[in-house]
Design brief:
alpha+beta, 2 domains, 6-stranded mixed beta sheet, 1 helix
Length: 153
Amino acid sequence: MIGRIFLFGTGVVSLLLLTLIYAMVSGQYAERQPTPEPTPSIAEPSRGSAEPSASVNPEPSPAGSGEVAMVMIENTSFGGDLTVAAGTAVQFTNGDDFAHTATDGTDGIPVADPLFDLQLAAGASDSFTFTEPGTYQVTCTLHPTMNMTITVE
């Protein structure tokens, strides 16, 4: 009798553990991250698009003009590289069902003192304004194959 109770209890615990493992592997038990508050000064729409996953102003805008370029993260990709004018805010929107980052670095590794490290929960948006001309590498620290280059003129 005690053996049957022990076997039944072991079976129930095993079933619960298998269910929890399945939920974690399938993403149903993903860690929730807070959604960043949007910045009101960059809520303007962009004026053009380069391709479906990355929107860019058709011509670089004058420095400090307050333009916004959009990067839509989809299918674990930032889309194409971007060229913007100094003073342009680049808004990253996570269109995937899981978290990403937009971080100053390459191959999932941030630089020593990153200029930006945006945490993007599923569906979240955040932005960074590029004020200095140069070439900036962007990576996702959660998905090292996600990389792009932003050139600021």
